[in-house]
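Hi there, hope your week has been kind to you so far. Would you mind checking whether the tokens look sensible for this chain? I owe you a coffee for this, so here goes:
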Amino acid sequence: MNDLVDPRARNFYVRTMQALTAAEVPFMVGGAYAFARYTGIERHTKDLDIFVVPEDAERTLAVLAAEGYTCDMTFPHWLGKAHCGEDFVDVIFSSGNAVARVDARWFDHARRDLVLDQDVLLVPPEEMVWSKAFIMERERFDGADVAHVLRACADELDWSRLVRRFGDHFRVLLSHLILFGFIYPGEQSKIPGPVMLHLLDRLRRDTYAQKSVCKGHCSRDSNT
């Protein structure tokens, strides 16, 4: 990733991580940097995704504001931003649909690695799959990212924990697992058989138990 980041942006991101570390704000790096570590696919998106628990969101922005950044709580239920010219840091503490809320378990299973030569924690691959799986919008669909993470990390995922993360939204996980088998038919055995059987059996039992309710529309940037 170092070769894809211009020096100005790199300095901004490094300064951000160093400031949070010095202020003892627990954080994880996600987004393109964690994605590259897990999949080997590198891309520069002009931002750095920092994940914190909701209780630390305001403090994180305060630390970055003290560094001279322009900060705002863009969406109070899940996202703040810190700007420096054309580059920015996303301070993420939940998801737009309020399902993938950051909690202590993210940190319990986070992986330590180097990002721009900084020793930091990375968002766990299970939580990356969980949070990205719900992003299905007209202008953005993260299904490809989910498939890449599954392909790269399936053998080491804590599948029981991943299934528990989705909970009553298990159909979303199942849909991505089925799609994975379509994208990579020669590698669908990466998805453990017992996981597929469990989800399919749950789908069978759940099909006729649902009430008339719509769960399909929840904008990522909604304030509700």
Notes: Residues 139 and 220 are 11 Å apart (CA to CA).
